[in-house]
Amino acid sequence: MRGVSFFGIVILGLALSGCGGDTSFSDIKAKMAEVKSRPKGRIEPPPEFKVYKAFSYGAAALRSPFERPIDVQLAALPQKRTNVKPDFNRPKEVLEQFGIDSLSMVGTLTRPGANLFALVKDPDSGLHRVKEGNYLGRNFGKITSVTPSKIDVIEIVSDGQDGWVERPRTLVLRED
């Protein structure tokens, strides 16, 4: 133990002796004097920038170019009423909590003597088996047919005038 501490003191002494010596820093001072004696350069001023005039979009209150123009004469005519309306008393199915655009058909299943089932993937990556007569989507979408390549759905949506209309939709088999 005594030899280890003596050896440690010797190492410490050698390490500290390397820190001593010439403290004049003459070489560094000479280099600094040389750099300061050089002629000073001139930095060019930054370029002049043109003043930017902000653009103000004035057509925000107008009709979107992606919507069909409304014919005022047709809109004033009374619309033919249909007896279509959703069944609010029916219990909701699992896939009715998702928008139909967020659902995707990923396959089909067949069993002997049974109808064709479709496999539908929801946004949470859940897989659901559906058949004709099941409901999906937020707009009371009822599955009318299932084929190996698509699911046909009839949605019941509001017509904007206290009525309801049927709207056909299709989920196509996703191949990725």
Keywords:
3-stranded antiparallel β-sheet, 19% helix, 4-stranded antiparallel β-sheet, SH3 type barrels, 176 residues, alpha+beta, single chain
Compact overview of the structure:
With 176 residues, the chain is an alpha+beta fold. It has helices at 2-17, 26-37, 72-76; strands spanning 104-109, 117-121, 127-130, 135-136, 141-146, 150-158, 164-172. It has three helices and seven strands; from the N terminus they run αααβββββββ.
Number of strands: 7
Q: Total helix count?
A: 3
Q: What class do helices, strands and sheet pairing give?
A: alpha+beta
So what's the overall shape?
A: elongated
Q: Mind telling me the CATH class of the domain at 88-172?
A: Mainly Beta
CATH architecture of the domain at 88-172: Roll
Helix content: 10-25%
Structural description of this entry:
This protein has about 180 residues and is of the alpha+beta class. It has a domain at about 90-170: SH3 type barrels (Roll). Helix content is about 20%, strand content about 25%. Strands 4-5-6-7 form a 4-stranded antiparallel sheet, with no helix packed on it. The chain has a 3-stranded antiparallel sheet with strand order 1-2-3, with no helix packed on it. β6 and β7 form a beta hairpin. It is elongated and about 105 Å long. The model has no long low-confidence stretch (mean pLDDT about 85).
